[in-house]
Amino acid sequence: MKMKLAVLPGDGIGPEVMDASVRVLKTVCACFNHEAGFTKGLLGGAAIDETGSPLPEETLKLCRESDAILLGAVGGPKWDHNPARLRPEKGLLGLRKAMGLFANLRPVKAYRPLLPAAPLKPEVIDKVDLLIVRELTGGLYFGQPSERRGPEKESVVDTLQYSKTEIERIVEKAFQLAQIRRGKLTSVDKANVLESSRMWREIVDKTASRYPDVEVEHMLVDATAMQLIARPGQFDVIVTENLFGDILSDEASMITGSLGMLPSASLRADRFGMYEPVHGSAPDIAGQGKANPLGMILSTAMMLRYSFGLEKEAAAVEKAVDAVLAAGYCTGDLKVPDGKIVSTNELADKIIDHLKENHAKSLHV
Ligand code: NAD
Fold it and tell me: Rounded to 5 degrees, what are φ and ψ at 214?
């Protein structure tokens, strides 16, 4: 397999976690006999400093010519007081939009060595392995321009709008993902109140007839918020609209209590995707070798699985992460009891060693 990858390290700890992840990916390629080309591009604050734009045309061109995008993180205090068009996050939002990425995937998984430090009881989260699929480009955040009305601007309007096509494509994606996971889909809405939710339900039910192997349930968003804390182990794939997904995915990300561990993917209907950790640029620890690279490394595993169909390779990276944590290695943000705190690069080295040891037979270095 040949992979053409756009690498956008961004700001703060972005370049550190990206370097670590690219080294891990190179090892995967060597072990499993794949070829990957890595081309770096500027995004966010780094791009503003160099070119005057948070999303330079050259970066867009690079992304359009690539098979997938790897993104570190953007932002930092240096650019906090810039005008809106010169903010680092403008680059990130612009890139998602320009590439038509409408499905945001956030997996949440419990790692045994991290259970004691998680906010919920270990027995509640022990078996958690869920995936939230959030619609990313429609709904309340993208309706008719919000406005204040009335002589004294005493009323306000935000519009929640979805087209049938927008709902169909995200629901389809969620069914496909449930099919390659454990075959269960929870569709989350507020159908007792919202017309958009009633249309969402109809589309889910209609799509379900084409996926007889997927078990479907509907759950109201308020009930889901409770169930995620009470019994998170019941969920496999959760699909929901933009605003509900924004809130539920942040709630779910805290179940295991480790921001630095969380990967994400933003996909469109074909296999193209952008892969990035959930965390930000962490300016407080940037440049100190303290950043946890696992969120970025696990994002590259998602890329192998979803953009290239390389399930064995993705699982190898995930197993290596499991094994390294189980051996007690961690960065300072992870509260592994009796853990050995190592640097960003040392943690990546441990993952690389594990991959080499377990896939040495096919090693092509
Ligand atoms: P943050 O995620 O950067 O940091 C929150 C806390 O978690 C900090 O204490 C940080 O040190 C810690 N942390 C985060 N990632 C870590 C990692 N990999 N390893 C160890 N510790 C880690 O969120 P913030 O402080 O609210 O935002 C900082 C900057 O990042 C802001 O400019 C914000 O706009 C930006 N941001 C960017 C993205 C993105 O690029 N997708 C997402 C969120 C925030």
Answer: -105, 125
Alpha carbon of residue 209 to chain centroid: 29
Would 1-101+272-365 and 119-146+156-256 be classified into the same CATH topology?
Answer: yes
What is the predicted pLDDT for the residue at 360? 72
Transcribe 94-148 into DSSP letters: HHHHHTT--EEEEEEE--GGGGGGSSS-HHHHTT-EEEEEEE-SSGGGGSSPPEE
Which of helix, strand or coil describes residue 156?
strand
What does pTM read for this prediction?
Answer: 0.94
Under-70 pLDDT residues of the chain: 361-365
Quickly name the fold that domain 119-146+156-256 has.
Isopropylmalate Dehydrogenase (3.40.718)
Q: State residue 335's pLDDT score.
A: 83
Cα 122 to ligand 1 centroid, rounded to whole Å: 26
* 186 and 235 Cβ atoms separated by less than 8 Å: yes
Q: What residue segments make up the domains of the chain, in order of their start? A: 1-101+272-365, 119-146+156-256
> If phi over 0 gives left and psi between -120 and 50 gives alpha, with beta otherwise, what is residue 153?
left
CB-CB contact of 319 with 351 (8 Å):
no
333 lines ligand 1 (CB under 6 A): yes
Cβ of 344 below 6 Å from ligand 1: no
> Are residues 8 and 96 in contact, defined by beta-carbon separation less than 8 angstroms?
no
- The per-residue pLDDT for range 56-105, each reduced to its tens digit, is 999 999 999 999 999 999 999 999 999 988 999 999 989 998 999 999 99
Say how far apart CA 104 and CA 88 lie, in whole Å: 20
**For ligand 1, is residue 353 a contact (CB within 6 Å)?**
no
pLDDT cut 70: percent of the chain above it: 99
Residue nearest ligand 1's atom 33 by CA? 75
Q: What values do phi and psi take at 55, rounded to 5?
A: -135, 85
Does ligand 1 come within 6 angstroms of the Cβ of 282?
yes
| Helix ranges restricted to H, 119-278 | 122-125, 164-180, 195-208, 221-230, 242-253
Tens of pLDDT along 158-182? 999 999 999 999 999 999 999 999 9
- CATH number listed for the domain at residues 1-101+272-365: 3.40.718.10
